[in-house]
Write a structure and sequence with these properties.
Strand order of the largest sheet: 2-1-3
Order of helices and strands: HHHEEHE
Radius of gyration: 19 Å
Distance between the termini: 25 Å
Number of domains: 2
Length: 95
Amino acid sequence: MDESRKKFEDFIYSISNSDICRDFILSKDESDNYTLPRTRDRWLFWQASRQSQQVVAYLAHSGVSVSPDDFEGGEAEMHETAKREEWVALVKKEE
């Protein structure tokens, strides 16, 4: 089992309240695919959310893009402010 799937299943275990429920939610077919559609969807969303993407700037509500150069604290301050202000991330996908 790859590390990402292990973390996904650990997460499911952490939010489930019984072994029977966990086993049902994480049941797999002979091809090692989750049998429940909802679990398959969650697995796909889990994978997509962890794809390597680098946030290079944000789009503020005013329509202006901001980058780390716009902050004294650099990238860390940019990310903190963006989270607090709920700005839209502008990403650069890995090639």
